[in-house]
Amino acid sequence: MDPARRAAGGGGNRRDPLRADAARIRNTLLAAAFELFAEQGSETSNAQVAARAGVAKGTVFGHFPHEALPAAVVSGEVDRLVTATGRLPKGGSPGAHTVRRRSLLPWSDHRRRRERHRE
């Protein structure tokens, strides 16, 4: 799989899945980036992400070319919110269901369509 597709959230692609170790490293990078973005904002560097994840800077670029890392972090968080709000009881939180239906699902669906189009 080309790095851009992998950075956009690929890796679940049946034709070219990430190896288990590559998927583990990718997830470690995403977690480190999420923490650093929360602590320092968008000025976080790939070198800082690499240091937090305990890998070489080139590893970050291998998984997330150019500016793909922030987009991958945001995509992962939106997917997590879609899943979490989908588990809410139907009558429990109408506001959360409205946010899911109007904001999260359309964004997530758009991203998935773009990924399928690239394949």
Automatic annotation (TrEMBL):
<dbReference type="Pfam" id="PF00440">
    <property type="entry name" value="TetR_N"/>
</dbReference>
<feature type="domain" description="HTH tetR-type">
    <location>
        <begin position="23"/>
        <end position="82"/>
    </location>
</feature>
<feature type="region of interest" description="Disordered">
    <location>
        <begin position="1"/>
        <end position="20"/>
    </location>
</feature>
<dbReference type="InterPro" id="IPR001647">
    <property type="entry name" value="HTH_TetR"/>
</dbReference>
<dbReference type="InterPro" id="IPR009057">
    <property type="entry name" value="Homeodomain-like_sf"/>
</dbReference>
<keyword id="KW-0238">DNA-binding</keyword>
<protein>
    <submittedName>
        <fullName>Transcriptional regulator, TetR family</fullName>
    </submittedName>
</protein>
<feature type="compositionally biased region" description="Basic residues">
    <location>
        <begin position="110"/>
        <end position="119"/>
    </location>
</feature>
<dbReference type="GO" id="GO:0003677">
    <property type="term" value="F:DNA binding"/>
</dbReference>
<feature type="region of interest" description="Disordered">
    <location>
        <begin position="86"/>
        <end position="119"/>
    </location>
</feature>
<feature type="DNA-binding region" description="H-T-H motif">
    <location>
        <begin position="45"/>
        <end position="64"/>
    </location>
</feature>
